[in-house]
Amino acid sequence: MPENQAGTMSSGPMLFYTETLIDHFTNPRNVGELAEDACNGYACIGDPGCGDELKLWLRVDQGVIADIRFKSYGCPAAIATSSMLCSLVSGKTIPAALAIHDDDVVQALGGVSENKQHCSLLGIKALRQALLDWSRRMEALE
After folding, report:
1. Sign of the dihedral through C-alpha 70, 76, 81, 87
2. I need a surface site. Which of 15, 63, 87, 133 has the fewest CB within 10 A?
């Protein structure tokens, strides 16, 4: 059975994770916080339905995401999708980062079980909220 498809057993659903997803879960990229003086965008997003929470810090320099960090509290898929999102947007311009969608994150991981794909939305929502926070901070400086 392919590693990114869900099967079922009498005890409930059985999840299959791709090697890439497992790698991003066990070795997450860009994990941690940015110091307050190094951060100009922040978001904290939670999904009460499953208990996942994502905190995202970023630093934008001259319209480019120069640094991005996260802390994700949740299942392996939530941590892996957060890690992959950070990898995908790091070094991107704001428009290029905003063009990334949850399907891009899922595809970059080689797939995510259907019942865990909502985790990829968490990262996209956090990214957009952090960029909105950055935009508001920049307007306040003008």
Report:
1. positive
2. 63
